[in-house]
Predict the structure of DNA-binding transcriptional LysR family regulator.
Amino acid sequence: MMEMNSLNAFISVAKEQSFAAAGLKLGLTRSAIGKSVARLEQQLGVRLFHRTTRSLSLTAEGSLFYQRCAQALQDLEEAAANIRQDKPYPKGTLKLTVAAAFGRSQLLPVLRDYAERWPEVKIEVNFSDGVKDLIEGGLDLAIRLGVPPDDTSNLVVRTLTRFSSAMVASPDYLHRQGKPETLADIIHHDRLMYGTHYRPLSWQLLHSQGEVTDIRGNDRCYFDSAEALRDAAVAGMGIALLPEFIIRQSVNNGELIPLFAEYRTNEIPVYILYPTRRYLTAKVRCFIDMLVDAVG
């Protein structure tokens, strides 16, 4: 079992980036701090710090261990506050990853309000469509689109909202190329595709009465960014199939015109993932509550 003194010494050195400064903070000598860290390294079987005569830095293992220790201490502090019937106050660093297009259009207002309400919380956001390991990456939560991963045994999955996509084109494009009168006419038009030439996202639309139709056309350009695809549609480069939350503003200001409003894609879920914990920290719980109120 790890000694609390060794853990406190390690955390203090990691924060201060100095054995001497950590010793002053804890009221111990530099030698005592060094011995405590050395015992911890021996017990774990890994080196926690890179040491030179001029610098001190965490190893990869040390950085991961520090993140987990810091989170555990914060959990203990908030648990103690609950026992004392205090109101846990969000603090620390909130780390999250969010699907890029959804994050920029839907999440930024929530982050602004959260930062204003809880000024003691620092926020780190990764805008990415890639899948990250929440636990290994030291993340508090992820916001993703589509079907959740198969293995979520260590995670809580909570559906936030659902959206569908619609076809749009700019007034300029429709003026130059003509407005398609039927879905079959799309084959004569330029399509702006999400994905790559090898793995494009198919256009499968659902009629309000339940009929499913596969749409084909002249696939001119491929984009790995939904926002770039929307901008290309606004610029008159072709017809795009995009989520409603991305095109809403462009449709409202007349930059894009919806086509075949009776057709939509199947609804796609937006969901939150966070590590399974019997006690959810105040910073995460408050953020999820604000997100659900704003978007859910």
